[in-house]
Amino acid sequence: MSADYFKTIETPATSEFKDRGSKFLAFSYPIDRVEDFKKHLQTLKKEHPKANHHCFAYRIGTEGDVFRVSDDGEPSGSAGRPILGQIDSFQITNVLIVVVRYFGGTLLGVPGLIHAYKTSAALSIQSSVIIQKPVLINYRLQFDYLLMNDVMRLVKQQNCEIGKQELLLFCLMEIGIPKSNFELTLQKLKEIRGLELEAIQ
Q1: CATH architecture of 5-132
Q2: Which of 102, 92, 106, 78 is nearest to 26 (CA)?
Q3: Is 70 exceeded by the pLDDT of residue 1?
Q4: What is the pTM of this model?
Q5: CATH fold of 135-199, please?
Q6: d(CA 123, CA 146)
Q7: Biggest alpha carbon distance in the chain?
Q8: CA distances from 10 to 31, 41, 137 (A)
């Protein structure tokens, strides 16, 4: 996978896996920020209040260093890690998978749990579409409204993604510049007189 692009899932997906009476519902979501994860987890806990466990794993970013796993009361290492293992084996990022378990009365043991959570996560990834997205470098632009056409033309030409924008007499815009043509885009932006540029961390 080239460093200019990363793979993720296009839309949320769900799948179901059953083992000896226990039901495992897996929900996968594309996410960009840790805040997205919190919202999805809260929603699922409201939708499935009677579930015994809400185990999850997520990975965000292309460096692979932003991740978290949770066994949510299952034996240590039997849920969150196997879920993360599937995210990694499909080589995707910016993904959250939550597996909601309804206990069926029969203990599965640690190997059984690892198998169930791993399978549930894999099924939910397989039922979503994996897409390739450009790695973006984020910048904040400030400019006079009169420069709007020049800025917008360049943003479209270079396939930048527009995040926030406030278009008043004095405009503020946050854009993601594709890493693959970052140098050229930055140079062209600097050529627009009166445009202020600032990298967003």
Answers
A1: 2-Layer Sandwich (3.30)
A2: 102
A3: no
A4: 0.86
A5: Alpha-Beta Plaits (3.30.70)
A6: 51
A7: 70
A8: 10, 19, 20
